[in-house]
Amino acid sequence: MVVGSAGKARKEKRDSTNATLKKIVEGELNDADISGALRVLSSEDIVAVPSLEILRSKHPAEAAGSSFPEPPDPTQLPDDVTVDEIMAAVQSLPNGSAGGIDCLRPKHMKDMLAGAANGTTTALAESLPRLVTLIVQGKVPTSVTSIFFEASLTAPKKKDGGIRPIAVGNTLRRLPAKIVSKRVGKEVDKRATPRQVGCGTTTLLVVSLRM
After folding, report:
1. Which superkingdom is the protein from (predicted)?
2. pLDDT digits (tens, 9 = 90+) for 99-130
3. According to a count of CB atoms within 10 Å of the terminal CB, is the N or C end of the chain lower?
4. Confidence band (pLDDT; 50, 70, 90) for 64?
């Protein structure tokens, strides 16, 4: 049977799609994320190729006259982050979570901290709390904030034809956000109840890390 040029093009596209899917599934399995592999296999999501105008409409520019809170009083900074807080935050990140623009994935962090208690593992476990404390206290140098607080962007298509922009921040930026959320979660829950924010009372908790 002779395959026409159109049929050949469709076959090549299908083979390319299958190869990409296989690579993604293998990556999930290598991360010990079986549920993530199943989600990929059963997902109907397709990465969109939207126009810049559509994406900008989803994320409009800051409105004129917008105001933000003043930075925290330097004499009343949050308490230092502990090793236990770091370990709990790292373990709470799913194995299949993607990395940000620096490509450091949560699974990489888990693997590095799960090693034998040698000098390298201990040094990392002791250094992370000091780094995250600086971030939580708003002491990130302005020279790196534009990179450190950025995110990698993906825009899957919705079933209705729209797009769903997804931003994945750097793992080292997500750690302090999780720790701060944990610290203030009960207080926010108490103040928000019984109002619904998102799907639950405190599903949406925006943590602003002052730079």
Report:
1. Eukaryota
2. 888 888 888 888 888 866 778 888 898 999 99
3. N
4. confident
Query: Is 190 a domain residue?
Result: yes
CA distance 123 to 117: 10
Please report, for residues 30, 32, 172, the alpha-carbon distance to residue 26 in angstroms, rounded to integers and kept in the order given: 6, 10, 25
Residue 199 maps to a domain: yes
User: Per-residue confidence at 204, pLDDT binned at 50, 70, 90?
Assistant: very low
Whether 30 maps to a domain, the answer reads no
Closest by CA to 90, choosing from 172, 203, 206, 169, is 172
pTM > 0.70: no
Contact assessment for residue 158 and residue 164, using Cβ atoms and an 8 Å cutoff? yes
Instruction: Write out the residue range of the structural domain in which residue 94 sits.
Output: 45-58+73-211
Strand residues in the chain grouped as ranges (E): 151-154, 166-169
Residues 81 and 209 sit within 8 Å (Cβ to Cβ): no
* C-beta neighbour count of 175 within 10 angstroms: 25
